[in-house]
Automatic annotation (TrEMBL):
This is Class I SAM-dependent methyltransferase. It holds the Pfam family Methyltransf_23. GO terms for biological process: methylation. GO terms for molecular function: methyltransferase activity. Keywords: Methyltransferase, Transferase. The keyword Transferase applies. The keyword Transferase applies.
Amino acid sequence: MDKKRSFDEFAQAYDAWFFDNMNLLNSEVNLVAYFMKDAGETFSVGCGSGLFESILKRDFNIPIQYGLEPSEGMAEIARKRGISVDVTTAEDADLGEEQYDTILFNGTPSYINDLQSVFHKAYTALRKRGKIVVIDVPKESSYAIMYNLAKSLETWEHPLLEGVHPRDPYPIEFVKVANWRTTTEKVEMLKAAGFQDFDYAQTLTKHPLYSNNMEEQPIPGFDCGDYVAICAFKK
């Protein structure tokens, strides 16, 4: 099953999973907000259902009006949440030149095949001293290791995962089509695109089995969190 079809068919399941894991959702939203203060005009690459964007506007007064999303099912929900969405992939999108102050990739790098070319495109689309915020589950994290095991097994229902994954694991349909990258890999791609002045923050510092037990605030760095934000700037 390809990415677009997975997200089209399971768009409602995506939101439902987050609503079943509210502490985890709030922890991740807190991380997104960490680097989005004074974001200016922002474009969200892979905005999904617009869930994060709607919470950022409601709870942090961070408006994100524009985005792209390959899944029509997801985009339809995002539009109802007030986002102007282009239905296209990041690889095919035309982001223009010096159009935005901030470009956000929240949980989307693992679903972009040619991430390097997209980072180059984002660099061109940013205004001078514009920033890119790249947030995802790093490949070296507990979550990604668990996800890759579930992906190889093609199910959560396996003895190797018994007592390991959270009560409500991420839908296997989304796990199967993801390709997680290490923090180092993404940083090197961003540097190759021309970005500089890097900063990092992280959340979900508990084992996956316990990460929904309490809401977390972001902490600096990238060495212990299962959700990591990279912030960098255009020259």
